[in-house]
């Protein structure tokens, strides 16, 4: 497959559902650890019981069950929000249906917590605002018994790839993120990606919440390294920041063609294999692949497999006509919507943000490498000079974000307080 054919297939996947002038909604996904409050491991019998009890509530219906018939994904009948286990039975996710304002989502989230926290507290468990589950080492980190999750965990634990990965292939079971999707169009999606790619150092400074003392990584955002140093980061282009500012659509998709495919579906069966770049995928005559339970087989690559493609950049173009911002750790509960407000406000002032970044002295230095800047300003300790520089940059961005939120007229600027 030529690079141009790969680009064509990727454009079909990611641009075909993009509207010309979409109304901007906020789409929010929040992941949280369920924690035993006395420091013991999370009891997955308690977390499964939580979902069974919620399933009896008339407000919810069961959307997915695991292989033992436990409910693992619920949908709220009125709002269409989803509540689900995220990869393991220790982590809960709230996937909110799109909304006009952050306030709407915040209120629905509070209503869910009012139901869920008392159910958990009677067994000494609670939802907590940590980017890494504090009892990750003690917990049962096996995946939820759904084939897709089992396949993903098996992929991350894959041996013989030649990659010098970290020693925590089950990290997906205990890291938690705070994610936002915003509607974009053909005229602005690349501008959004370019602009937000340049502010990751400030987001690292403002919203870190995943220190990991187990490894000597000197970062407050271990989530970054869990991704980079795992098979998701087998190709550097597949995770984290984009390497540069893109001048045109083909340049962006040229980079996306270098990202990985590692899974395929045949019938109802999921298969995983050593990562292959999209641009090289259809050149393979056959691929040695594995089922979730480790059975080896050989598959022939198909064009339809490109539909399974998923990269893991911090600003991720989705097939739903949105850009997903996915670089932020789960925040303390009281600050849950702060990074979301920051991103929404900047998005609403995109032109002002672009003008600021064009002349920003923080970025116009010799150390313009955006990946290095993100790492530098997520360090556990900063020098006084570093602290001063990143505070000024962050303050300027917060000012622009606040203006954007005020202009939206929903009173969302309170989330930046």
Task: Explain how this protein is built.
- Helices cover 34% and strands 19% of the residues.
- The chain has helices at residues 3-15, 44-56, 102-121, 147-156, 189-197, 200-206, 222-228, 249-256, 278-281, 338-348, 350-358, 370-376, 384-408; strands at 26-36, 60-65, 71-76, 82-85, 91-95, 125-127, 177-183, 239-240, 260-266, 269-277, 287-290, 296-299, 312-313, 315-317, 322-329.
- The longest helix has 25 residues, at 384-408.
- The protein is built from 13 helices and 15 strands.
- The chain is globular, with a radius of gyration of 21 Å.
- β3 (71-76) and β4 (82-85) form a beta hairpin.
The share of residues in helices is 25-40%
Task: Label the overall shape.
Answer: globular
Overall residue-averaged pLDDT value: 96
* DSSP strand tally: 15
Structural class by secondary-structure content = alpha+beta
Quick one: biggest sheet? 9 strands, antiparallel
Gap from first CA to last CA: 51 Å
């Amino acid at each position: 497959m030529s690079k141009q054919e790969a680009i064509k297939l990727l454009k079909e996947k990611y641009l075909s559902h993009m509207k010309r002038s979409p109304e901007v909604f906020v789409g929010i996904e929040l992941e949280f650890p369920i924690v035993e409050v006395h420091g013991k491991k999370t009891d997955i019998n308690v977390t499964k019981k939580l979902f069974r009890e919620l399933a009896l509530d008339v407000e919810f219906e069961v959307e997915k069950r695991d292989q033992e018939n436990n409910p693992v994904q619920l949908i709220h009948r009125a709002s269409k929000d989803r509540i689900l286990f995220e990869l393991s039975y220790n982590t809960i996710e709230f996937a909110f249906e799109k909304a006009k304002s952050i306030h709407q989502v915040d209120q629905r989230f509070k209503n869910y917590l009012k139901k869920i926290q008392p159910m958990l507290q009677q067994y000494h468990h609670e939802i907590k605002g940590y980017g890494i589950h504090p009892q990750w080492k003690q917990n049962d980190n096996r995946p939820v018994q759904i084939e897709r999750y089992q396949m993903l965990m098996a992929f991350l634990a894959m041996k013989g790839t030649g990659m010098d990965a970290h020693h925590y292939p089950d990290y997906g079971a205990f890291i938690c993120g705070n994610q936002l999707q915003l509607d974009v169009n053909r005229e602005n999606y690349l501008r959004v990606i370019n602009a937000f790619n340049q502010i990751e150092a400030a987001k690292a400074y403002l919203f870190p919440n995943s220190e990991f003392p187990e490894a000597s990584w000197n970062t407050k955002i271990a989530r970054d390294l869990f991704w980079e140093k795992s098979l998701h980061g087998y190709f550097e282009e597949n995770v984290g920041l984009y390497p540069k500012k893109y001048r045109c659509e083909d340049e962006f998709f040229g980079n996306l063609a270098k990202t990985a495919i590692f899974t395929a579906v045949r019938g109802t069966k999921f298969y995983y294999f050593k990562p292959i770049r999209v641009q090289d995928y259809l050149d393979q005559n056959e691929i040695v692949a594995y089922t979730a339970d480790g059975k080896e087989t050989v598959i022939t690559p198909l064009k339809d497999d490109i539909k399974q493609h998923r990269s893991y950049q911090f600003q991720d173009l989705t097939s739903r006509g949105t850009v997903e911002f996915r670089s932020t750790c789960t925040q303390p509960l009281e600050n849950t919507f702060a990074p979301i407000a920051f991103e929404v406000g900047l998005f609403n002032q995109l032109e002002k943000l672009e003008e600021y970044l064009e002349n920003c002295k923080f970025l116009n230095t010799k150390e313009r490498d955006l990946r290095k800047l993100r790492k530098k300003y997520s360090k556990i300790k900063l020098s006084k000079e570093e602290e001063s520089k990143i505070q000024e940059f962050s303050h300027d961005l917060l000012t622009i974000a606040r203006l954007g939120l005020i202009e939206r007229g929903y009173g969302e600027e309170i989330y930046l307080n």
